[in-house]
Amino acid sequence: MSENTGRKNLRMPNDDEVFAVVTEHNGGNHVQLRCADGEDRMGRIPGRMKYRVWINEGDVVIAEPWDWQDEKANVEWRYTDEDADQLRAEGHID
């Protein structure tokens, strides 16, 4: 296969995770998320990501909803713009 399609194998959500788009940055380590399951949730950026990965409005992320409070979720992963475009092209997200 000589042609390079540029497709990467991207991290996909586990059973308890969903795709989400950051709609608002609430300061500190909290963001507002619109999740692929139709819910709007308050997202928490964990300490392991807080200073290494900058999360902005419009970013596509993987969120893990809390099982004891469904209106909240942890942000587990952030996609680059190129990776998000690939997910859209493959039909994983709107």
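^ that was protein a. below is b, sequence first then the tokens
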Amino acid sequence: MMKPYTPSLENDYRICESIIKEHSKSFYYAFSSLPDLDAKAVYAIYAFCRMADDAIDHAEDAPERMENLRELESDLDDFIAGEPPNTPMWRALWDTCERYDIDASMLYAQIKGQEMDVNFEQPEDMKDLIHYSNHVAGSVGRLLLPILCDNPSAERKINAEKLGVAMQITNILRDVGEDMREHGRVYIPTSILRQHGCAMNQIEQGEIDQVFINVWEDLATHAEVFYDDFRSEIIHYKKEARLPLLLSLSVYREILNEVRKNGYDCFTKRNAVSMARKMKIRNEESQFLKKIIDA
């Protein structure tokens, strides 16, 4: 029998909610409208993923980053063994895993993805980029799947991963300059740079011309194909989850259009979707769902 919520557990979930609200306004806007239990579970999953991010973002050098990841992995080992650390995130995640069939291997995949960033190697091709993106973002799709879908079949799992990959590629295309300046990383595969004749020093200098635009659009096309493909998946999700999921998809996809509107400046601008546009997207997706239900 499931344990009832206690005031302490409610507070744990509120802390997780504050984390997603602070760090991902787009996800919070989309998923805060879920039924209460499902929304809380999403917040707990996000809080864990944020903790994995922070393990390397708040460290000063590679040895400290790896030490932080090993500590997180040790805490996860204890969690899997039935002895979760006594902190708000772990307590909320424990409750979530009791209520939903969460795939623990995807929690480890998150840590592995962060480790890949510590030992960063620029992807050679799309296969390499998708491999990395599956760890840091496809895993999130898999973690959320049993919360949002009553029948998480093998096909659902594959497509949930692809949506996560699309969102990660979007992150990469939004943050080209930030990743270069702050982390010395270029996630655009070298094969795509070579194909379009784009030199690495052009990325390092933030030079925007037609060559760079061609590179950017090449990678954007991969994300947009994944976004388009996922839309037919929506009928397999809980009715209450369909609009929030489409919102997260479409708001994230809209980031690509924001970069385009800003002249492909992903070097000096923080491209984001306005609340007015988010509200318009909500209306558009509500109409889309009505059409497929009435069809």
